[in-house]
Every structure is written in structure tokens, then in C-alpha cells.
Specification:
With 516 residues, the protein is α/β, with parallel strands linked by helices. It has a domain of 176 residues: Isoleucyl-tRNA Synthetase, Domain 1. The protein contains 18 helices and 15 strands. It has a six-stranded parallel sheet, sandwiched between helices. Helix 13 runs antiparallel to helix 17 and helix 15 packs antiparallel against helix 17. The two termini are 52 Å apart. The chain binds 5'-O-[(L-methionyl)-sulphamoyl]adenosine. 5'-O-[(L-methionyl)-sulphamoyl]adenosine (MSP) binds next to strand 1, helix 1, helix 7 and strand 12.
């Protein structure tokens, strides 16, 4: 049977600077979703990349006495290094300076023109270069950029415009008929009220700088960087080129995962450009909140940017991924601090999960020479644990259908918590003192280790390095069939299994050594 496809994207990041922990959040979340979909049987395509054109990059390069390309190349190499270190497995990385991308952008622009949706006019208005966004006078906040609060510039130049206003009603109708299109609901409401206030035509070319893709029929103009950037979602699939197999296979995207600050571009401008060409629209735009510091936004000028590479060296990739994915509820902002991160690692990973494994493995070695035998039929206490395990699989599937990663991890950790409680209730260390309880002791250890296996399968998309270490301790390395989503059925651990002691999965962090 042909697998169902699933195409997920991240925003393409500006290589104006190194990425921080907030950017890492988006990409790790997309990676976790992509891995989950693969694990549950989908044909997945996961795209990320870099947004390399525009005035901001041109100026940053000039300030360093470099060409824009010289400037961006090492920064983009840094992005790829970060994704490798975070174990992000994308299927493609699109750079907007690549020939394949330029080709699609030019085709796309030309198609809009042929469709009669582009006209030339004089532009006079404000522009925020850090945000690469046009604003009208009344959109400004006290004369400054309403998004980033920085100074805006007055632009006066001849430009091409896209007839966006023409599509406002069609967009509103589409959004009303497709409630899943913009998520969460709070962001959908924001977008709808923005469009209801009246949509203006969009300025889509610039002439006063050079670093961009040329408008095909008027090379004095470069394509507005957001039109260039949004097109990455189809240029990476070969849209408008001879080799458009991927486009035919994966478009429309299932999810564009983006931060709340760039919702307007993804939920309004991009779908309207696609509508104009009668192309299928992405199925969902999912806008997540921001990772903030107690002191506010992370920014280079404030000098409070958190470098994920430092955290990765200190705590390891799975701990950092777990923290990011568990801490931030999708719909709202979350606060980062190294102390809360260390507390989560200590409580959830070191104590609840890691310790459950090491205690149980140690007992099996001590009491049964490390060999697991067939369990007895379940009693009431056992059955409660077994039922919760089955329920957990169902709830995880329901949570992930809504892409609620943080809730998913909380659901899985309820089962971990229940297994810890079960150990306390059944007290295998006491059973071991009574020779007549040998079978009961084996059953208890079997049940806990089976929970450990189920939990470990379920965390694989979120913490991809931990499972191999657990399989080794459980003696399951050579049983790949027991690592799969399909194996999430109770009682699969084979009798005769031999466990072995391994290194501590998540060493405890000394909180007194953390400053923030
Ligand atoms: N280049 C554009 C995107 C073009 S997509 C066609 C851009 N780049 S960016 O590098 O500035 O930001 C990329 C993403 O990082 C955005 O989704 C933004 O919301 C996200 N984040 C930036 N800071 C963040 C936090 N502090 N927390 C969470 N996400 C953050 O915009």
C-alpha cells in the first residue's frame, strides 16, 4: 500500500547572525514531528533552509567589507552544524542563493504577472529593514516598527505591486471553511481581524539595492525578499522546473511551522499568492509562541542571547531537545532559564526515567542474574499499569494528531510516574527476601521493564539518541521489531532476555553551579 505523504517545513532563517535557542526550538519541534510521522508510517519530507537575500544581509556584509555571499556562506555552514549537533534530520536544506531556487522564484513571479496580478506603481512608505517589512504610516507604533520597535526608513521608489486586496474575500471564505488552516485559534482570530481591516496591495520589488533575485521581465528590480523566501517551500520541490516530481508528490505542505511573528506572511500573503495561481494551499500554518527570557526578548543588542551549542556541550542533545519540547506549550510563550532546564533534566530525565531503568536493571541482576522470565498472569495492580500503558499509546496518538508535543511528553511521563509508583507499591526488594515470592518478583520486574520499552519507543522522535542506550541495557539491541510503533502492545518482552548495567542515562546536574 502506498504510504500517505507528510510534508513539513520550518521557516528559512536569516543568516545575518548565529542562531539562538529560540530558533533551535522551531527546528527541533519540526524534526520531532517529522520523526514521529516517519515512525508511524508516513512518507515524510522535512525541509529547512536559509533566507539569504535582502537589504539587511547586504548591509551586514558591507559593514564587514565582504560580499553578501562571502558573508552568508560561513553563517549557513554554522546553521547546518547546529542542526547536526541537535540531531535534526532534514530531507533537504534550501538556500535562496541556489540556482534551483532562483529559477522557481522567477517562474512564479512571471506567472503572477501573466495572470494580471502584478502592476507597476510608485511606492512611498515606511520600511523596517531588520524585519524586511513594509508599513503604512498608520501601522507604525509611535513612528517605529510595530513588530521590533526599531526605526523605520522612508522608501520612495518605483515598484511592482501584487493585487493582494483583490483576494481578501476569497481568503476570508477559505479560512471560514477550513478551521484547521491557521492554528492555534488565537492566531487565526488575529489574522482574520487583520484581513477584515482591509488588505492593501503588496509591494513586491525593490530597486534601491541589489542583493536579490532579479524580476525576470525587468532586471532593474529585485524580488521583495519575503516573496523570494516564501517561494522556498515549492522551489525545494522543483516547482516550475523540468524536475518537479517532488512537487507532485508532496505539495501541498501538511504543516508550515512558524513563529508567531511571521504568521502574517505565512497565513495571508503566501496563501493569497498561491490562490492567485490556483495552486493548492498548505493544509496548515501552525504558529508557535516564543521562548523568552525573564528579561524579555533575546537579542544581540541586549547581549542575552542563549547559544544552543554551549548547552549541547554541557547537557547533551537529548536533554536539550527534551527541555525545549516539554517546556514550551505550542500556543503560548514560554520562559527559558538554565535553572528550570536543569530542574527538568534532574526531575524528569535523571530521577523519573533514568533511575527507573537503572534501579530495575540492577534488581534484575541482583535477584535473577539479569535474566527475565515469563511473567505470571496479571493481578489488579499489574492490570492497572498495563491499562495505563495502552491508554498512553492512544492519548499520545491523539495529542500528536494535534501536534501538541509538550502535552505528548507530559502524557508519556505520566506512565513513567505510574511505573515508579508501581515499584514502590510492589516493593520488589521486599519480595526478594521471601523465596516463595520469586515468581511475583519476576513479574514485577517484567512489568516495569516492559513499561520502559514502551516509553522508550514513544520518546524516540523527541530524544533520538537515548533509545539505543536503553536497548543495550535491556538486551534488546538485536530486536529491532521491538523498537517500532507497531510493537507498542503489552507483553512483547521475550522471556530469557538478559539485561546489563550501563552508564547513567542522564547524570544529575548540580543546581548550585548554575547562575541563571
Ligand atoms: N527569514 C524569515 C523567515 C522566512 S520563512 C519563508 C525569518 N527568519 S528569522 O531567522 O528571523 O526567524 C526564523 C524563525 O525563528 C521565526 O519563526 C521566529 O519566530 C523564530 N524565532 C526567533 N526567535 C525566537 C524565539 N525567541 N523563540 C521562538 N522562536 C523564535 O523570520
Amino acid at each position: 500500500m502506498k504510504k500517505q505523504t507528510f510534508y513539513i517545513t520550518t521557516p528559512i532563517y536569516y543568516p545575518s547572525d548565529k542562531l539562538h535557542i529560540g530558533h533551535a526550538y522551531t527546528t527541533v519541534a519540526a524534526d520531532a514531528i517529522a520523526r514521529y510521522k516517519k515512525l508511524t508510517g508516513y512518507d515524510v519530507y522535512f525541509l529547512t533552509g536559509s533566507d539569504e537575500h535582502g537589504q539587511k544581509i547586504e548591509r551586514s556584509a558591507a559593514a564587514k567589507g565582504q560580499t553578501p555571499q562571502e558573508y552568508v556562506d560561513p553563517v549557513v555552514a554554522g546553521f547546518k552544524n547546529l542542526w547536526d549537533k541537535l540531531d535534526v534530520r532534514y530531507d533537504d536544506f534550501i538556500r535562496t542563493t541556489e540556482e534551483r531556487h532562483k529559477q522557481t522564484v522567477q517562474v512564479f513571479f512571471e506567472q503572477l504577472q501573466q495572470h494580471g496580478d502584478i502592476y507597476k506603481a510608485a511606492y512611498a512608505g515606511r520600511y523596517c529593514t531588520p524585519c524586511e517589512t513594509f508599513f503604512t504610516e498608520h501601522q507604525l507604533a509611535a513612528g517605529k516598527c510595530p513588530d521590533c520597535d526599531r526605526e523605520v526608513e522612508l522608501l520612495q521608489e518605483e515598484s511592482y505591486f501584487f493585487r493582494m486586496s483583490k483576494y481578501a474575500d476569497r481568503w476570508l471564505k477559505f479560512v471560514a471553511e477550513n478551521p484547521a488552516f491557521i492554528q492555534p485559534v488565537s492566531r487565526r482570530n488575529e489574522m482574520v481581524s487583520f484581513v477584515k481591516q482591509g488588505l492593501e496591495d503588496l509591494c513586491i520589488s525593490r530597486t534601491t539595492f541589489d542583493w536579490g533575485i532579479k524580476v525576470p521581465f525587468d532586471p532593474r528590480h529585485v524580488v521583495y525578499v519575503w516573496v523570494d523566501a516564501l517561494t522556498n517551500y515549492i522551489s525545494a520541490l522543483g516547482y516550475g522546473t523540468a524536475d518537479n516530481q517532488l512537487y507532485r508528490r508532496y505539495w501541498p505542505a501538511d504543516v508550515h511551522l512558524v513563529g508567531k511573528d511571521i504568521m502574517r506572511f505565512h497565513a495571508i500573503i503566501w496563501p493569497i499568492m498561491l490562490m492567485a495561481l490556483d495552486l493548492p494551499l498548505p493544509k496548515q500554518i501552525l504558529g508557535h509562541g516564543w521562548l523568552l527570557l525573564e528579561s524579555g526578548k533575546m537579542s544581540k543588542s541586549k547581549g542575552n542571547v542563549v547559544d544552543p551549542l554551549v548547552l549541547l556541550d554541557k547537557y547533551g542533545v537529548d536533554a536539550v531537545r527534551y527541555y525545549l519540547l516539554r517546556e514550551l506549550p505550542f500556543a503560548a510563550d514560554g520562559y527559558y532559564s538554565e535553572t528550570t532546564m536543569a530542574q527538568r533534566i534532574n526531575n524528569d530525565l535523571a530521577n523519573d526515567y533514568g533511575n527507573l531503568l537503572s534501579r530495575t536493571v540492577a534488581m534484575l541482576i541482583k535477584y535473577q542474574q539479569g535474566v527475565l522470565k515469563k511473567p505470571q498472569p496479571a493481578g489488579a495492580l499489574d492490570q492497572a499499569l498495563i491499562n495505563l500503558a495502552g491508554e498512553t499509546r492512544r492519548v499520545v496518538a491523539a495529542d500528536m494528531a494535534k501536534l501538541e508535543i509538550s502535552t505528548t511528553l507530559a502524557t508519556i511521563w505520566q506512565l513513567v510516574g505510574r511505573a515508579n509508583k508501581y515499584l514502590e507499591e510492589t516493593a520488589p526488594w521486599a519480595l526478594a527476601k521471601d523465596a516463595t515470592q520469586a515468581e511475583r518478583l519476576n513479574t514485577v520486574l517484567y512489568n516495569v521493564l516492559e513499561v520502559m520499552r514502551l516509553v522508550t519507543v514513544m520518546i524516540t522522535p523527541f530524544m533520538p539518541n537515548t533509545p539505543a542506550k536503553v536497548w543495550e541495557q535491556l538486551g534488546l539491541t538485536a530486536h529491532p521489531a521491538l523498537h517500532t510503533w507497531e510493537s507498542l502492545q503489552w507483553g512483547q518482552l521475550p522471556p530469557g532476555l538478559v539485561v546489563q548495567k550501563g552508564a547513567v542515562l542522564f547524570p544529575r546536574i548540580d543546581l548550585s553551579e548554575i547562575s541563571g
